[in-house]
Design brief:
Layout (H helix, E strand, L loop, with lengths): L3 H20 L4 E3 H4 E3 L5 E10 L11 H13 L15 E9 L8 E8 L10 E8 L5 E8 L5 E5 L2 E5 L4 E10 L12 E6 L4 H15 L4 E3 L4 E5 L8 H8 L3 E3 L5 E5 L4 E4 L4 E2 L2 E3 L4 E12 L10 E12 L5 E3 L5 H10 L4 H13 L3 E2 L1 E4 L1
Parallel strand pairs: 15-23
Antiparallel strand pairs: 1-14, 2-11, 3-4, 3-6, 4-5, 5-10, 6-7, 7-10, 8-9, 11-13, 12-13, 15-16, 17-22, 18-21, 19-20
Length: 371
């Protein structure tokens, strides 16, 4: 017999575990994974530049803008040159792109992507010259320069060549330096807005409710299914970062609509957990018709006066797969749907056709999205 103290301790431990399991929200996720803060976002940057030092794999002489850019650059450096006389194969015009993260400060380094703009065959071994990177408003926020890394190669000879990876797009790790920051100050903000990545009314209300419980007052309000507005409490007026760090760790119960995604190009079908169907009978089979034509030579009999003729001999074969008719009761779950459809041997493409038919019949209780 177990000792009474041990039995009582075990009972208390089991009750504590059960209480914890019941208190933990199902399908919960952190607020930082569900939403972003309005105004805290990346900013795309773009610039036009030139890559030099290529081993004859640059833009051809017919690429006019490359010649004009090279002549203009040399003119600024004190070398007078006629663009029509420029014929080099070691230079390529490129577009340089980067992403300016929120709260970036001058001196911070960014990774950049360099993409060929003309007819260069490879950027391997090249060096990007100083390239200003501008935002959509036309202001320069960073400057890029440095040797590029392609991550592939082009080789061969005698009419044969071998290419690995995409050699007209390259990267420069830490290749740009931030010159100015995108101004956005959190401290002093009186209101914050959380933007849900997947708008949903139930999830938005859950976010507002959990924020109010965490802060201890009604500071959060779901204005619609995609935005939750939060009034900054007076004690956090100059400590907004502390407030956000506290709120983004909240565990929020997530509610998602029933949805089925069908990609007809790849035959991929993704079925959500909440998908249900009404009672429906399904039969699925393939009808294959094969027509084979074979040319045969018909020879006339001796002394018949006939001529040799080519005759097409056609053979038609019809095959129909014998599939069972299955009955799915109303309200079955995802696992039961998959098992039932697997029972009649459907492929992913067959499943896409079946789901579309079920949706047309009103038996599929979910949103069907075809991409």
């Amino acid at each position: 017999m177990p000792h009474p103290i041990f039995t009582r301790w075990l009972r208390v431990a089991l009750l504590a575990v059960l209480a914890t399991a019941l208190a933990a929200p199902a399908q919960a996720a952190r607020l930082k994974d569900l939403a972003s803060v309005s105004g805290v976002r990346d900013n795309p940057l773009v610039g036009y530049g030139m890559v030099i030092g290529l081993a004859g794999t640059g833009d051809k002489s017919g690429t006019g803008f490359t010649n004009q850019s090279l002549a203009s650059m040399l003119t600024k450096l004190g070398v007078t040159l006629d663009p029509d006389q420029v014929k080099v194969k070691n230079v390529a015009s490129v577009m340089v792109t980067a992403t300016l993260p929120p709260f970036a400060r001058p001196g911070q380094e960014l990774d950049v992507t360099v993409s060929s703009l003309g007819d260069a065959t490879s950027l391997q071994g090249g060096t990007l010259l100083v390239t200003p990177l501008k935002a959509v408003n036309g202001e320069v926020f960073a400057v890029a320069q440095g040797p590029i890394s392609v991550g592939g190669f082009v080789g061969g000879g005698g009419g044969d060549s071998v290419t690995k990876n995409h050699v007209t797009v390259a990267r420069i790790s830490s290749g740009a330096v931030v010159e100015r920051s995108a101004l956005f100050e959190l401290n002093g903000q009186m209101r914050l807005s959380f933007l849900l990545k997947q708008p949903d009314f139930t999830t938005a209300l859950a976010v507002a409710r959990n924020i109010n419980v965490e802060v201890g007052s009604d500071v959060a309000l779901a204005s619609d299914g995609g935005v939750v507005d939060v009034m900054v409490p007076p004690r956090y007026e100059n400590r907004v970062v502390s407030l956000l760090a506290r709120l983004e760790a909240l565990e929020i119960p997530v509610d998602v609509p029933a949805k089925v995604i069908v990609n007809e190009r790849t035959g991929t079908v993704v079925v959500g957990e909440e998908v249900r169907i009404r009672q429906v009978a399904i039969a699925h089979g393939n009808l294959n018709i094969r027509i084979a034509s074979e040319a045969q030579v018909s020879q006339p009999g001796m002394l018949s006066g006939g001529t040799t003729q080519v005759v097409d001999q056609t053979e038609t074969t019809v095959e129909e797969e014998q599939k069972r008719l299955i009955l799915l009761p109303e309200g079955v779950s995802l696992g039961e749907v998959v098992n039932a459809l697997n029972a009649i041997g459907v492929t992913p493409r067959d499943l896409a056709a079946i789901l579309q038919s079920m949706r047309a019949a009103g038996a599929l209780l979910a949103e069907l999205e075809i991409i």
